[in-house]
Amino acid sequence: PLTRYYKDKIEAEYSGVIQMDTYGGEYGMFVLNMRNNYTRGASPGETPGGGPAPGGQYYCPGYLSGYRHAIAHIVDRDYIVDVIVGGLGEKLYTHIGPIYGGFNLDVGTIPDPDDPISTGTLRHEFSIAKANAILDAAGIVDGPDADDWREWPSGHPYAGQNLNVQFFYRTDHALRTKVWEFLEPIMKNNLKIQVTSFGGTSAYCNLWYMTDKKGDMLTAGWSLGSDPDQEYGLYHSEMYWHPGWCPNYNNVNDAEFDQWSF
């Protein structure tokens, strides 16, 4: 598809000569990946086998439900669609977007049980205030050291230590880099979560994050088919395995989801 710049340029300079028409939407989506595993291997800069978890592994913040819901509230879909992709996209609230017609579910009508400060919905509306409130309610707060960084919650093996999210992003995909550029400062400055970022090519992120299952977050994307069967193909628990690359590399694992996506 053309970017908005070239679309407007062609329509302005070649009106009546070149007829512009739509071809339908591109079946693809941006994804902000959060690893759901309890533990993971060492990211760049961490000591392989030197983690405190069994087998020298490192603990994943994405295993904590409160953390996942909080991060979901700092994804500003309006900004991503209107600014980053120049209006050439749709806001997604599930993996089955409006382009799939009747298969699309408006989750804006479903209350969010994890919203502690107002009646939100499963759209996870952009709200830094809600993100902070969810983290507070989950016990992911600054500890007695008062160093202004959030720590792992009480009862976790990392309790008393600062969260430090290992964030991978694609440097060979400008739009995904811009998503990372938007999110990282919010995590650091507004949520007070330490972030260590690693930029690299598709091959780099594929090896570290998708194949070796290292790192906590990744700006990624999928090209999809014309049938909305990606829920099973990408996120059913049968689609996760290790070692090796797998479609469900974030290890989404929920029995009810498995039932409905099969």
Order of helices and strands: HEEEHHHEHEHEHH
Overall, the morphology is globular
What value does the Rg take, in angstroms?
A: 20 Å
Mean pLDDT: 90
Number of strands: 6
The side-by-side strand order for the widest beta sheet comes to 1-6-4-5
Low-confidence stretches: none
Outline the secondary-structure elements:
Layout: H1 4-13, E1 28-34, E2 39-40, E3 58-59, H2 65-72, H3 77-84, H4 128-137, E4 164-170, H5 174-190, E5 194-200, H6 202-211, E6 217-223, H7 230-235, H8 255-261
Parallel strand pairs: 4-5, 4-6
Antiparallel strand pairs: 1-6, 2-3
Helix pairs in contact: 2-4
What this model shows, in words?
- 29% of the residues lie in helices and 12% in strands.
- It contains 8 helices and 6 strands.
- It has a 4-stranded mixed sheet. The chain has a two-stranded antiparallel sheet with strand order 2-3.
- α2 packs antiparallel against α4.
Give me a quick take on this structure.
The protein is an alpha/beta fold and 262 residues long. It is built from eight helices and six strands; from the N terminus they run H-E-E-E-H-H-H-E-H-E-H-E-H-H. The protein has helices spanning 4-13, 65-72, 77-84, 128-137, 174-190, 202-211, 230-235, 255-261, and strands at residues 28-34, 39-40, 58-59, 164-170, 194-200, 217-223.
Features:
two-stranded antiparallel sheet; 6 strands; 262 residues; 8 helices; single chain; globular; alpha/beta; four-stranded mixed sheet
